[in-house]
Request: fold
Amino acid sequence: MAAPCSAQSPIPEALNSRDLQTLVDLLEFATATYADRPAYTSLGRCLSYRELDQLSAAFACYLQQETDLQPGDRIAIQLPNIIQYPIVLFGALRAGLVVVNTNPLYTADEMLHQFKDSGAVALVILKSMAYQVEGIFSQTHLRHLVLTQVGDLHGFLKRTLINGAVKYLKHMQPAYDLPQAVELRDCLNRHCGSQPSPVTLQHQDMAVLQYTGGTTGVAKGAVLNHANLLANILQVQKALESAANHWPDTVMSPLPLYHIYAFTCSQLVLLQGGHNVLIPNPRDLSSLLKVLGQHQVTSFLGLNTLFVGLCNQPEFAGLDFSRLVLTISGGMALTHKAAQQWQAITGCQIVEGYGLSEASPVVSLNPPDAPRIGSIGKALPYTEWHLLGHDGQPVSSGDAGMLCIKGPQVMSGYWQQPQATEDAFTADGFLITGDIGRCDEDGYLHLLDRAKDLIIVSGFNVYPSEVEDVVASHPDVLECAVVGMPDETCGEVVRLCVVSKNPALDAAALTKWCRAKLAAYKVPKQVDFFDDLPKTPVGKVLRRALRAT
Reply:
């Protein structure tokens, strides 16, 4: 689809009725329009849109008046899903800074790589992680360090209890020596009620330096400008028009805000005046179930491993899902079994989408009123895609090919990596996703797998996700992953890695199950059982780690 845009912005005019140009414009619209509504809730602390405006303004004032930071400087945010995150995010953007989203579970070495690569000169981090900074601070460009504790924005009693439990009962705050650090709470209190000096931002200005997940190698920084992110928010809003109109009322996204999936979706919820319910530790399913029981959730954002985990908790089926009208899946392939279990328990179909950090991230989404399980849906408005063969030419209709995309949400390139940027695009400007797909006659795209994960058995292509979908349908399988294994005769063979719910399940039973449903060359030749599969902090299975075992 062609993308007519104004001379001032690459955002299609048909999507942008409010003429928003930056994420700061989005914040100002949302806080003015929905001032008294709840914006974010975490650990029982609800932040209204009015408070979000006031506290983010206070943080912007601190940055402008107490530091030497200038528009365009990079600030790393290394926080879990607590309400300090949106305050710091929008405060930084209002001061014209570029946000570097950083995983709060990173090791010191991982932090050092990202801080040095991004050139970050400021960092906001939990006190629980401060000891890691102490050892690397002198090796980075960091000049400003802001610390916060989980309960800092709660009332006095609850703040004291939460922070005390973290430090003294759970022993999650190792000692550190960082005399240059300041307290976020103090920064906000000093500037409460103040307004920052206006900063002139353009749509093409970099807003976020989003590092790729690193599941296939060293993470690279995708340069996402304000227009990229805002366009994607507006594209998804348009794609969800057929959803029930109260889908944003109470949205639970047990995914980290430092990840682009949850990051962009949370901004979409703000645009709609909705309520983001944040989960600080999505892997703690018991706590997640407790919070689910406290809210009448209208929308739920997740990924396959999370759906499987929740559906296998006995308490999950007893929750009230009467208001749940939208469930979105992304981040990894959705299996038929997970989709069926979720719908059987909640009464809500899962709408699967697809994206990547380099596209802000959403590329496609199933229509909420006509989702197809096994498909990643249709291209978002004003998004084009090609499926290319090994020769770089479009494949025939119905055939598999490399998915390449173009649209206003696609990054300008990788941070300070011109060769990697050149390699990431086709000659006519399409981003090469590295994913293999097939388009059906109705325009729904079916993602087959990552090109790097493709297994070639005696010249035949085996897509891991196809085998995983079959294995996952076995009643005794909790989760699984498929990787290639070198073989002298066939070049590669299929290796299956399984987490079972039944200790009696063996390799022979799974092989028999696969033989009944798959061509012979796709049947696993080796089956290994695991207590848990290695995953990224977001929950994606790390096939790279499995290949090394």
In short: Confidence is low (pLDDT under 50) at residues 1-7.
